[in-house]
Amino acid sequence: MPREIDEAWIDEAIERYRRLDVLRGEFEKAVAVHVVSVHSPDGSIEILVTAAGEITGVHIRGSLQHRGAAELSREVQAVVTAANEAARWARRKLHDEVFGEFRSLGER
User: What is the CA radius of gyration of the chain?
Assistant: First the structure.
């Protein structure tokens, strides 16, 4: 006996795939342009990072002459780690905004 084909379900799946593709494009654009600013613990270094994880700016505040290499290295490491975490946070928030109301096929 031949199987019945639920054409309405197939049409809905195709439409959902197209919508998902559009949303994925919007998400990729959003993460590329959404910028988060993070600072080192002492506030002397600022990094601008996109939600995609690309560092777009590094700003040093004040003089570096009074610092040793080890101290500066710790501050740089701390702010780069914070930038990575901030990018992940921003990506999650954007993902929730873009895909938050996208229901699964089982939720008819």
Answer: 22
Q: What is the largest CA-CA distance in the chain?
A: 84
Residue 30 has pLDDT above 50, yes or no: yes
CA distance 73 to 32: 28
DSSP string for 62-89: S-STT--HHHHHHHHHHHHHHHHHHHHH
Residue 11 has pLDDT above 50, yes or no: yes
* Region 51-74 average pLDDT: 90
Range of the domain at 14: 7-99
Tell me the one-letter amino acid at 90. A
45 vs 1, higher pLDDT: 45
Indicate whether 37 belongs to any domain. Answer: yes
> How many domains, the chain?
1
And the tokens for 19? Answer: 């919508």
Residue at 1 is within a domain: no
Residues shown for the chain: 108
Mean pLDDT of all residues belonging to the chain: 88
- What's the token pair of residue 75? 């501050």
